[in-house]
Design goal:
22% strand; binds zinc ion; eight-stranded mixed beta sheet; Rossmann fold; six-stranded mixed beta sheet; 2 domains; 496 residues; alpha/beta
Length: 496
Amino acid sequence: MEKKIKVFIGGILMEVNSFNPVLATKETFRTWLEGSELESMRGTSLELGGVYARLDQEADVEIVPGFFAQACTSGPLDDRDFQEMAAQLFESLRAAGAVDGVLLVMHGALQSTAVDDCEGFLLEGVREIVGEDLPVCTSLDFHAMFTEKMVRLLTSASGYQTYPHVDHYETGYRTAEQLMHILRTGVRPYKIYHEIPMIMSCENSNTIDSPMAPIMHRTQVLLAQPGVVGGSVFLTQPWLDVPELNCSICIFAEDEEQRDSFDQEAAGILNEIWEKREQFYPPMPQIQEALERCRTMPKPICLVDYGDVPNAGGSGDGTAVLQALLEANLDISSAVVIADRESTEQAVHIGAGGHGTFSIGGFGKCGEFNQRISVDAEVLRLNPEPFVHLGPAMKGFISRPGMRALLRVGNIYIILCENVCISHDQAMLRTMGLDPAELGIISMRATHSFMSCYADVMGSWLYVDTPGYSTRNLKTLPFRKCRRPIYPLDESCGDQ
Ligand SMILES: [Zn+2]
């Protein structure tokens, strides 16, 4: 019988916001799969869906599923739990026996309370088991912090090429494609790595119409060159406080004759980011000015509560927008989503159709941005069910907000959630009986993913400079570990 090529798959995928004081634990990981349970990812639009789709095309490949866990963005991961999860991943790899290749699915911005470069730590552990030469490839987020340790330990890697991220599947597929190429040819790609001392904004780096769009196009042209195996630009999300914080590009290539030209182009791509650095930080209005603008903007308006975005590590309990809406007394209907377990329980106690005085907000640690607000509200609806994202961003993902309660104060609808929950998908509103098309303002706790999810109903969108753990005002955050100087924290960082 023909010998099978054995490919181990697994990983730990989570993004950390270093400034959110609420630590993540094992319980934060809503996806927790061991061994054959990973096969439930077949047919999904996530990375592992793409990995399976590509590897399943190979008759002589045997997929050995190990351990895989995924969580939404949170504060740093408790290191005891991280070590336990890392050990579980390593144990599943050891149990796989002799394998020919390893494919990991990771984010790239996981930080524990003791380890700043968790992906590097995981790759180190994998290398100890499989040796220095075995092909090890990983898929990563556009916002990965691609460290020099990762460059050294990886055989190849691939990152999302879209922001908002809609190519999870394609990125998994590409990573598996690279691994198959490496396994079939025996090539060991050389690596080109460049980085700049810059914190990239999330507010103006989408791949649709921001200054990043042509840069991503240029990157894709480079990645498509014959002789290039893999790689990407890795911009790091801005709320990660780690020593190597940067924007980087890493290219894995096999054509030695092209090495200099690939190197020059990779450096040129990063230089273009550097040259445009100020354009990634355009002016953004405060909430009062934003609500004034909303009066005349095409409806519905997706109003981005930029400082408190859960998938950027915000706590999802900020009340700055609700407070301003109550004060502005607009003749436009609006909806806000707020994580608040106590008020949700109170709504359940009151029941649909009842009225009560609620003290909303401050789910996590109370600060300037999530002060509790007292409102007299009617309870319209209760819903304990998880919901499935309609997409396109994260289509099929199951959100588990726990119990939700829909309240109404005048023309303001408030969706209370028992758990912190991402809210960029229309399903959040629709499953509570709200039709987004009939609303004037939809307060959005998302940086970009709402753009694709609301494209069919949205009249316009507006970013608001609100406070919170994902604030755009990076200078107000207590960066302690990251290299200095770095743009835009330090004025002196004008020249490379
Ligand atoms: Zn990202």
